[in-house]
Design brief:
alpha+beta; three-stranded antiparallel beta sheet; 10 strands; five-stranded antiparallel beta sheet; 13 helices
Length: about 325
């Protein structure tokens, strides 16, 4: 597999100077300031001045996903009420490894700014738009289809490591008892529910303005066709469970996918934090999670925020009856 060493600032500056000149975006000379992007780990990413970001695929697998991402963003863009980056130049920065010079979506990270009530409506529009993207067209671009995860298997895995968090005074393992095996079975993904799933709706991929509006969504390389509850789970980690469920409800999702997303997020955070605190467990689970420990703790807190829906909803076999009850 082709894999390049981490580029230096001089390497990036030389590439950027050439790109901006060839694309007509900027002039030559010393070129704009370049500095590495601290957030994210999928690509080697660099800020280019105030208006662009350069992302360099570090290996062939990332290059394949980046090529697909460029086509996918064009497919998705008309369906979403929020902005997506636009590539002003793309190609190979070394043989077989791609780059894209993208416009920078104005705003801050979702980890820097909270999402307002209007911002929750923006997130609802995001979930609605993803559901409206034609699945067949996404498949022709090479977007993979993934099977829903087993919530029961995830529940058992979280239960096995919950004691480690309790011993470290990080979490109360009793909280996992709220998800009984029968409830996990009821919250299984429903047949025929697969949609386009961003699959990485972390705070760093949400562009949020100072007034709490969601202005854009980044990071489309992990997009799949699969379980919409995965994006609800991602939002629970990014903005908290109550806001995530409110956004999903506004998008037309019923109680079952909302609660499924909630428990996917809760079990995931327990497993990931326990793995980070116990290096032996991390090796055994092979998580290689780059998320900083303080952020893992914050995501755990967000995922376990109580919501009214889980207190009042009696799960039934018919999703339409769930919607009517709510």
């Amino acid at each position: 597999m082709t894999q390049a060493s981490t580029p230096t600032a001089d390497t990036v500056r030389q590439l950027v100077r050439s790109l901006l000149k060839d694309s007509g975006v900027g002039a030559g000379g010393a070129g704009p300031e370049v500095r590495p992007v601290a957030e994210g780990g999928e690509h080697s990413a660099w800020w280019v001045g105030a208006r662009h970001v350069l992302r360099l695929a570090p290996d062939q697998e990332a290059a394949v996903r980046q090529r697909r991402e460029l086509r996918l963003r064009d497919l998705v863009r008309p369906h979403l009420p929020v902005a997506l980056p636009t590539s002003v130049a793309h190609g190979e920065w070394v043989a077989g490894l791609t780059y894209t010079l993208d416009t920078r979506v104005p705003g801050g990270s979702g980890e820097e700014h909270g999402v307002s009530a209007v911002g929750e409506a923006d997130l609802a529009g995001l979930l609605t738009g993803l559901r409206e993207v034609p699945v067949r067209q996404a498949e022709t671009l090479g977007v993979p289809r993934t099977a829903p995860r087993s919530l029961e298997a995830l529940r058992r895995a979280a239960g096995q490591v919950a004691r480690r968090l309790a011993a470290a005074d990080e979490s109360d393992p009793v909280r996992l008892h709220q998800l009984a095996p029968t409830a996990a079975a009821q919250l299984a993904a429903q047949p025929g529910s697969a949609v386009l799933v961003h699959h990485a709706l972390r705070g760093e991929h949400l562009v949020v303005s100072s007034d709490g509006r969601v202005r854009g969504v980044l990071g489309w390389t992990d997009t799949v066709i699969g379980d919409p509850a995965e994006d609800i789970a991602g939002l629970a980690l990014a903005v908290g469970s109550p806001a995530a469920v409110r956004a999903a409800t506004l998008a037309g999702y019923g109680a079952r996918p909302c609660l499924r997303g909630l428990w996917l997020a809760r079990c995931d955070t327990v497993i990931r934090l326990a793995a980070r605190l116990d290096t032996r467990l991390n090796t055994r689970l092979d998580t290689r999670d780059p998320t900083p420990l303080p952020l893992l703790r914050t995501q755990l807190r967000r995922a376990w925020e109580a919501i009214l829906l889980e207190r009042v909803t009696e799960l039934r076999d018919d999703d339409e009856r769930d919607d009517a009850d709510r």
